Amino acid sequence: MEQTYDFTTCRAICAELENKLGVYNWREVIEELKDGATDFEVAGYRFIATDDLDEIMRDELASDEYVLGCFFPSFLSGILDMDQDAIQKIQDAAPEALGHLIIARGALHHLQREYVSADGYGHHFAHYDGDEWEMSSFPFSAFRVN
After folding, report:
1. Could you tell me if 98 and 69 are in contact, meaning their C-beta atoms sit under 8 angstroms apart?
2. CA atoms within 13 A of residue 27's CA, in its CB half-sphere
3. What are the domain boundaries of the chain?
4. Is the Cβ–Cβ distance between 58 and 108 less than 8 Å?
5. What is the pTM (predicted TM-score) of this model?
């Protein structure tokens, strides 16, 4: 669905992108926003709509059971209500089995909330520096990926 942005809003977006991120490709960002995009990349930054952050993060986590099973045993212990030593032994043999267990037990939402609470969104999305930039002129967060 195409969105409309008035001149004042476009100007605020442009200024914020340039001042906060050093992104001068603001026209590309505005075009993506106008087209209704909620997750896109421009100039080495990934922009994700604030309302979609949790769902996108859960989808990405669920797509890789190996990564899910590689969280610290102390962290997973609270998520799975299991002994840390047992988690470590499973990780040593097959971390993807723990990832599968997280999904099968319906613990992915809990894990994702705890992950964000501990490390924020930047740790997951910003492969470059781990930082999250909350945009004030439009409801998105930006993450440097390159």
Report:
1. yes
2. 0
3. 7-144
4. yes
5. 0.90
